[in-house]
Amino acid sequence: MSGPTGDLTPSDQGQPPVDPGDGGVHGGPGALLDPHDAVSRRTLFTISGAAALAGTTMGITAGGLAAQMTRTRRSPDTAPDTAPVPRLAPTDMTVTSGDLPHGLADPVPAFGTLLAFDVTPAARRTSHTTRAAASAFLRGTGPIPTQPSGGVGVSGLDLSPTNLQVTPGIGASLLDAVGLAGRRPEAFVDLPRFAVDRLDPRVCDGDLLVQVGAEDPMRLAGAVQQVLSLAGDGVRLRWSRSGFKATAAASQHPTGTPRNLMGHRDGSANPPLGTVRWDYTVRVPTPGWMRDGSYLVVRQIRIDLTRWFAEPADVRDRAIGRDTTSGAPLGGHGEFETADLSARDASGQPVIPRSAHLRLANQVNTRAARTYRRSWNYDDGFDGFDASGRRQAGLVFVAWQSDICRGSTPIQQSLDAGHDGLSDYLTHFGSAVFAIPARGDDDYPGQSLLES
Asked: Is 216:111 a contact under the CB 8 Å cutoff?
């Protein structure tokens, strides 16, 4: 399936007006929202407990969403609240939401693993057996225990439940296999072929996805083992990718935007959690089995770090369009300052180059497209089969959105068309899209679809 190709305005998307902000690194979400923007049409957070010192972790367990979100309808035109919405970092606060995909409204854990699965040929004999295998697997991903017993997940023993997030999703290929292609939402489209794509089919797509995140790598390893144990004879692993970012304990500024391996802040332009803009960016508003869910785009991007760091600092900054140290748009002073795309230097050239990633990912160039980034870095070390000894490292680009047609697709198309200054350093080798249903009243995400 393919999405619409005409220009999209904010009113087309049911979103607030576009700000002249800037996009994030590697296909960011577009303009930055004023941190005083209003709380969403649904109040997104029920917060319990007091904030502790920066660097402590949240106590959220998969399947243990203790408080339901207070649901309040609000039009995007409603006047904003005056209280600022902070950019949250892991603390001992428990942030829970009753109907969003698990973990989406929580801070990104320091460590994560994405696992894509296919239903096995034996279980794929009929649409009925395929549904049964998928349902059994998804049902098991909810109550991942925090204290595993037996021989599964024992690496997680003796650890507190450090922000464990387990988020299952459904691939379009599963809908085809179970005879539900007609119930595929218009917003759930395949990505087109991009100019930067050098895709390896072995690390693309999948019938099912489970994203696991934790603030501790041992807790993550235990949870991943438990997810793998659910596969049985019905599903098999297709690909996996593990990633990391700075831990809150190690960060000088735990609430700050994390950096990627290129040294730049990653996600500066994300809409702040709990705002109207965040809600409209990530949450599916239309009726049906995906209501209150979100669509996930995963891109595995190798970065030529040797070549990148061989460049002078000013060349790297101009490729991004931001200052490395401060994160400010070129010509600006602060990370969250609105980029001035019209600014010129003494010679009359744009201060933010025409091919700068920030400029091309800006909403004015992407038909108002926006996503919410929750990415990790990855590092596989050095490739022993490569005579040049290139380091196999890069970005696990994870972007959430309410509509792929109005999110990742137009952003990457703008980057391609403008010859993104980063593209010479990047290799996009993995790509996948998944529907991530909200749990709602279902026993497991997607139950109302697969058991219909």
From this structure: yes
